[in-house]
Amino acid sequence: MKQLVLPVMIAASLFGLATRAHAQGLPASEGTVRVLMTQALADQPGTDITVLTVDYPPNGSTPAHEHPGHTYAYVLEGAVVSQLDDQPPQTYTTGQMWSEAPHQHHVVSKNASATAPAKLLVFMLAPHSQNLTKFLPAK
Question: pTM of the predicted model, to two decimals?
């Protein structure tokens, strides 16, 4: 059961990101976020887990952003380029994942392909009722 908790928490967190990003009016070319679940963590008062998916069309991307809590992204389909802070960009393919610390800048998040879609499953652990995504000013 404990082995299932982390993946479920990660998925829940990402779902909140996707839902809130979609609600903020991102163009369709920037990805479609679908919240699958948001739930309060009974043993961690004031903390929610959100699970979501992010569907990127070919060449799709999302603007630079950060999250208030721990975020875990798992590539369900395709390949996604991700860059955190000033680290070099990395390409993750189906079955690979990465994590983000609270308030870490996610400066690149895009589909690595010009012809095929990509899909992420995201889990976020964040303070209750907080906006899960804050977009960063363009550089």
Answer: 0.79
- Mind listing the pLDDT tens digit of every residue in the chain (139 residues)? 444 444 444 444 444 444 444 444 454 468 899 999 999 999 999 999 999 999 999 999 999 999 999 999 999 999 999 999 999 999 999 999 999 999 999 999 999 999 999 999 999 999 998 999 999 998 7
If we measure between CA atoms, which residue out of 45, 42, 43, 54 comes closest to residue 13? 54
Indicate the helix (H) or strand (E) that contains 14: helix 2-23
Helix, strand, coil percent content, the chain, rounded in steps of 5: 20, 45, 35
Which structural domain, as residue segments, surrounds residue 116? 2-135
Rounded CA-CA distance 58/123 in Å is: 23
Work out how many domains the chain is built from and give that number. 1
Instruction: Return the CATH number at 87.
Output: 2.60.120.10
From residue 109, give the alpha-carbon distance in Å to each of 19, 38, 40, 48, 56: 16, 23, 27, 23, 10
